[in-house]
Amino acid sequence: MKEQLTIAMPKGRIFIEAVELLRKAGYDLPPEFDDSRKLILDIKQENMRFILAKPMDVPTYVEHGVADIGIAGKDVMLEEERDVYEVLDLKISECYLAVAGLPNTKIQDVAPKVATKYPTVASKYFREQGEQVEIIKLNGSIELAPLIGLADRIVDIVSTGRTLKENGLVELEHIVDITSRLIVNPASYRMKSTEIDDMVDRLSVLIEGEDAS
Ligand code: PRP
């Protein structure tokens, strides 16, 4: 019998692109799926259960094995450092992590303040650059920090660049390109390899096809 797969999906921006990708790969996800407020969605015809989590929490569900599979941004993977397999680059939700700030500001502090939702990534980046900084952890609207004097710089996601532009900020350094990844719980990969390999194969064929076109 086919094993049921539980998939942790990130609520928000990535969700729409991830659902579209799964549909293109042939998964029959009903239209109600797109705007449901339910946090657990059982798709009987596919023998799949979807759980809808905050993007930053997806690797936690997968690491603990309550989800077999998850879709998580590389930014989240770098920040969370969870014990999961990253099996496929889904090549959706492309963006990048960057350092940004107000234009033409001279930073005089020994340890300038950097506001970010990504303290681990930011600390590692500045350590590698040999720069001493003070990290201030925020949970969103990071661009606000330099505007009101909470921080000298920010480390945040840039997608279209609109948020930086509309808030008068400029990009200073490019840190790393980001796309969404398919992640798998190691024990699930052993126990449900047929179903998981099938999903990886279907998605890989699709992604390679889209890359070639
Ligand atoms: C993200 C990110 C930037 C913005 C970048 O925030 O943190 O603020 O999107 O996108 P852009 O380059 O297309 O403008 P999000 O909207 O996810 O909300 P948040 O501020 O709560 O993190």
Automatic annotation (TrEMBL):
An example Gene Ontology CC term for this record: cytoplasm
GO process terms (BP): L-histidine biosynthetic process
SUPFAM superfamilies per UniProt: Periplasmic binding protein-like II
Matching InterPro entries: ATP_PRibTrfase_cat, ATP_PRibTrfase_CS, ATP_PRibTrfase_HisG, ATP_PRibTrfase_HisG_short
Pathway it works in: Amino-acid biosynthesis; L-histidine biosynthesis; L-histidine from 5-phospho-alpha-D-ribose 1-diphosphate: step 1/9
Keywords, ordered alphabetically: Amino-acid biosynthesis, ATP-binding, Cytoplasm, Glycosyltransferase, Histidine biosynthesis, Nucleotide-binding, Transferase
Residues covered by the ATP phosphoribosyltransferase catalytic domain: 54-203
Domain of life: Bacteria
Class of this enzyme: transferase
One Pfam family, short name: HisG
Sequence similarity: Belongs to the ATP phosphoribosyltransferase family. Short subfamily.
Role description: Catalyzes the condensation of ATP and 5-phosphoribose 1-diphosphate to form N'-(5'-phosphoribosyl)-ATP (PR-ATP). Has a crucial role in the pathway because the rate of histidine biosynthesis seems to be controlled primarily by regulation of HisG enzymatic activity.
Subunit architecture: Heteromultimer composed of HisG and HisZ subunits.
HAMAP family reported in the protein's UniProt record: HisG_Short (MF_01018)
Domain notes: Lacks the C-terminal regulatory region which is replaced by HisZ.
Protein known as: ATP phosphoribosyltransferase
Organism: Bacillus taeanensis
